[in-house]
Amino acid sequence: MNRFIGLIIIMMSVAAAHGQTLELGNEYYNKGEYEKAAEVFDKLSKKKENGRLIHDNYINSLIRLKQFDKAKDFLRQEIKTYPDVVVYEADLAYLIEVSGDQAGADRAYGELIDKASEKDSYVYQLQNFFYKTNKIDLLIDMLLKSRLRSKSDDKHNIHLARAYLFAGKKNMMLEEVFSYGIKHKNSDYVERTIQDNIKEDKEVEMLERLLYTKIQDNPDEIYYNEILIWHFVQQKEFSRAFTQARALDRRLELGGRKVFELAGLAYSNNQFRDASRMYQYVMNEYPSGDFYPYARRWNIQCREQLVKNTFPIEETEILELIDQYKVLIKDLGLTPKTIDALRNMALLYAFYLDDQERAVEVLEMAISEAGSNIKFKDQCKLDLGDIYILKEEPWESTLLYMQVEKSQKEDFLGEMAKLKNAKLHYYTGEFELSKDILNILKKATTREIANDAMQLSLLIQDNLGLDTTDAAISAYAAVDLLLFQNRNEEALLKLDSLFEVYKAHSLADEILWLRANTNFKLDRVDAAISDLNVLLANYKYDILADDALYKLAKIYDEKLGDNTKSMALYRQILTDFPGSIFGADSRKRFRELRGDFVY
């Protein structure tokens, strides 16, 4: 027993000494003392089992010392010991190259690629070597030769796509990506690759040309159409997406479903004209289809959005919208597909015709007709709460909001009710109470709610307590309430006086922003432009700078028709604010004005 224990102790001592020797060699190597490191590794190399442990650092030490023959001898021994570790053969080819024998290295690489192409495990071993030594062309040659030998046209798609990306050949990368996507019916990988790697205008144009070519060459393959539609949606080019969706709809006899879904995306991205065209298509092509009632109602809503965002708003246009909703209900009846029309009518009465009594009457009718649709009823209650703010009855509003919050605890409507209550407390100067609610909503499940909560919370936090009376934020909130109530002229007068008093205050850019938008609503375009220019000149480092620049571009574009000026402003957004949320819209509109698209 004692002899056995002694043997174990001896073995442990030998292992410890071996470990210390290896550690010493690595320490010399890391310090750049290659001669000392090579001397230690040379002793360790006498035992074959040490080869893998010292391989990289020993070879690199010998290369640094230009002891190429010694390195070759070591590598040949390693190759003999481990014939299936093909990376060692790659190391030998690289050693031949760095020793100055390029012709010999080329032969070695050629033989290596030929050998690797016969066995997938060799291909996978060598990929990292080629990336590490920046020999991407050799990697591509190997993958293509392996594909050719396998007689499989789509073998190594993902690996080739990555290699082509590193080689800067993005057109070839896309070819491989599409081939993989079609074979595996995988859109997620294709879409992620495009999003991550196709960003410059020239790359986007190349992608589009390639997809159009694929569609023409493969008319029966709808995959390319679907990817092109997805791409256009990412670029917010909904008119071009509509062209492709319409073609798919007819070819596959989808009954308008694809176009209807795309119209919803266009609407949610505020592209109301494009959405209207799509809804109109569904109505014209499928008057007896399941989507017709929805398309008809949403088409009126598109027109409503256009009317409400074209200033000054004409009362006759509002009355015409209400008539259209009435005709819709008369023609199709009050059904789950049309009942939303009552909500729309009520809000038009309340916010644009100043007829709150009629609005309440219509909403109460909607609630009574909704049957078991609790969610719709609660949405109407939120609308009623908003209308009571117009009527200056905030207690009625907060009671309605609290009812919905209780009824829809785990739903978007419940969070929306909380947000409306927080805004109501903000309007009435109860800032601490508003902040308490907003702090909860910052973690809301809906990004839109969370962002709105964060924005209002920061506004209050940044401006609360900056003076002894909180006068600035209180006055600003009171103006915000006037604007919510559409009392624009009254709000504008207060904004004028606010800006004079608080030019040096942290609220100055917010005041200018509200004033610019209010002037624009009242069709005082020159005054709006002046406010936006002042904001950009004096507050260009504040968070509203890109909002102001985009608003200015839209005014010159849509209101004044000055293409040259608006193009310059859209380009400025892309250069000065590359991460702006207005980037995609600005790029799209800039390209439209430049004449890139023919619809």
From TrEMBL:
Domain of life: Bacteria
Organism: Arcticibacterium luteifluviistationis
Entries under Gene3D superfamilies matching the protein: Tetratricopeptide repeat domain (1.25.40.10)
InterPro entries: TPR-like_helical_dom_sf, TPR_rpt
Name of the protein described by the UniProt record: Uncharacterized protein
